[in-house]
């Protein structure tokens, strides 16, 4: 399995500085719902400290954690793709501090700085590919576990 990349460290220093100039510091207390699946995705975060659970609603009463994010991790990618709606929900598993980015501002910056745009989209794609690979591995483990217990 490939190593997870961190969005800000993946950017060359000049582009990282331009992007982080748009960041604002935010914090979320433990157990705070940061966003819900289906809501408008108009921002994203880079976690500075704490832990965030990405969740999928199975039933109205049950959510399943599909990924856990920590320091340096990108939280939110749906702002990049129409229809700009969150695919998952997110909840602060512990107190969280993060850099928050307004999607419209970042997209404007990417239009001004094509190199930043390409590196940012490529980095987000690599992060998503890694998360998909991790999820695939977990699903295969679950399948093997359940298949083995049925024999």
Provide a brief overview of the structure.
The protein is α+β, with helices and mostly antiparallel strands and 151 residues long. It comes from Streptomyces ziwulingensis.
Instruction: Write down the CATH topology.
Output: Jelly Rolls
Determine and state the CATH class: Mainly Beta
What is the overall number of helices?
4
Query: Got a strand count?
Result: 8
Percent of residues in helices comes to 25-40%
Question: Could you give the order of the helices and strands?
Answer: HHEEEEEEEEHH
- Strand neighbour order, sheet with most strands: 1-8-3-6
- Which assembly state applies to the chains in this document? single chain
Number of domains: 1
Q: Which keywords apply here?
A:
single chain, alpha+beta, cNMP-bd_dom_sf, Cyclic nucleotide-binding domain-containing protein, 4 helices, cNMP-bd_dom, RmlC-like_jellyroll
Question: How would you describe this structure to a colleague?
Answer:
Helix 3 packs across helix 4. The protein is built from four helices and eight strands, in the order H-H-E-E-E-E-E-E-E-E-H-H. The protein is α+β, with helices and mostly antiparallel strands and 151 residues long. It is globular. It has a four-stranded antiparallel beta sheet. Strands 2-7-4-5 form a four-stranded antiparallel beta sheet, with no helix packed on it. The chain has one domain: Jelly Rolls. The protein has helices at residues 7-10, 13-20, 103-112, 114-150, and strands spanning 24-28, 33-35, 43-49, 52-59, 62-69, 74-75, 89-92, 96-102. Strand 4 and strand 5 form a beta hairpin.
């Amino acid at each position: 399995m490939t190593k997870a990349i961190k969005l800000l460290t993946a950017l060359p220093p000049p582009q990282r500085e331009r992007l982080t100039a748009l960041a604002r510091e935010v914090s979320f207390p433990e157990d705070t719902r940061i966003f819900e699946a289906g809501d408008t995705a108009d921002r994203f975060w880079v976690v500075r400290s704490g832990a965030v659970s990405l969740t999928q609603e199975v039933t109205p009463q049950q959510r399943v954690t599909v990924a856990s994010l920590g320091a340096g991790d990108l939280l939110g990618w749906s702002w990049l793709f129409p229809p700009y709606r969150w695919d998952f929900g997110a909840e602060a598993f512990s107190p969280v501090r993060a850099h928050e980015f307004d999607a419209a501002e970042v997209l404007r910056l990417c239009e001004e700085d094509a190199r930043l745009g390409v590196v940012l989209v490529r980095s987000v794609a690599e992060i998503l590919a890694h998360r998909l690979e991790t999820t695939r591995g977990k699903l295969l483990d679950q399948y093997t576990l359940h298949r083995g217990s049925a024999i």
